[in-house]
Design brief:
Blueprint (H helix, E strand, L loop, with lengths): L1 E8 L5 E9 L10 E5 L1 H5 L18 E2 L8 H4 L11
Antiparallel strand pairs: 1-2, 2-3, 3-4
């Protein structure tokens, strides 16, 4: 199991743990199962905002990723990939 902490810097310059991504290693077909959950501290902060208003609303629940990468689209560009291998 892979766990990643998500940090956010709010408009008032407060740096806050926003939540956690958990994911499995790729299966035999290369698919990853993953999920995201907001932290309580983030949900309780007055300046917090949804990272993706459509797929990650500001509620306390586990959001299952519906992508082959195992993460929600909002996180895909922030994670390492194999783009350099294709150059």
């Amino acid at each position: 199991m892979i766990k990643l902490n998500v940090m956010v810097t709010l408009p008032d310059a407060t740096r806050l743990p926003c939540g956690e991504i958990v994911a499995t290693p790729p299966d035999s077909q290369g698919l990853v199962k993953g999920a995201f959950r907001y932290s309580k501290a983030y949900l309780d902060h007055s300046l917090a905002f949804p990272l993706d208003p459509v797929t990650l609303p500001m509620i306390s629940k586990e959001f299952i990723a519906q992508s082959p990468a195992g993460v929600h689209a909002v996180f895909e560009d922030a994670l390492p990939d194999d783009w350099e291998k294709n150059c």
